[in-house]
Amino acid sequence: MHDASILITVFNCDEYIEQSVASALSQTIEDFEVIVVDDGSTDRTAQMLDRIEDRRLKTFHCPRIGRARALNFGLERCASPYVAILDADDLAFPRRLRLQADFLSNNPDIVLVGSKFRTFIDADGRLTGRENLLPTESREILVMLKAMKYPLAHSSIMFRKEAVRELGGYDENLPCYGDLDLYVRAASNFKFANIGERLSLKRLHPKQFFGGPAGLLHTPAGLKAREIVARRAAALA
User: Fold this and answer.
1) Whole-number pLDDT of residue 28
2) Closest to 94 in 3D by CA, of 27, 33, 22, 20
3) CA dihedral defined by 218, 228, 11, 115, rounded to 10 degrees?
4) Mean pLDDT, the chain, integer
5) What CATH number corresponds to the domain at position 186?
6) pLDDT one-digit tens code per residue, 208-220
7) Cα–Cα distance between 206 and 194 in angstroms, integer?
8) Which domain holds residue 117?
């Protein structure tokens, strides 16, 4: 069993996947693994992953199954009780796993932890000057969830694997908003936190599958998914 796992799912991200994996493999913690699920990529992503030689990296090539199913597939293959999420175009800071694993070990009442800072970079990796500050306390996080706002940056979170499995993992019926939905469903039973250190860099670029100008969030399916999550958020106590 490893101390921590990093889970990356990727679909057609050959411009950034090597950088993302390199940042994942640069962690200061000693015993960890990086699980990458290639969700049916049709560009050079598969070839780029296969040429990375590192015993800590495990790559799984799947037919196109969608983000939620790919996340659940990868989750079942993580050998650690602590799982960190990293998007395929984002970057993790080297101390991320150590800080988060220590935090969860020292705070048994917290199931999921992210970062107070959501720092953005552009397509070339340059800081954009934009940064979201997120709440650190579980009570404040719950308030944002009720308002359908993002209190946790998905690419910075680490969670207890068994707790997320207990919830049924990510909802595979949702084409998007799966991260927000996970927080909403978990909030009824579990506590969250954000620690006051930068853990990752969120890349903004025109080709983003979900949030770009033509991203899935803006489609009829995306709007329908938001309605479903909003109903679940409205039911939070």
Assistant:
1) 96
2) 27
3) 100
4) 94
5) 3.90.550.10
6) 655 555 567 678 8
7) 28
8) 4-234
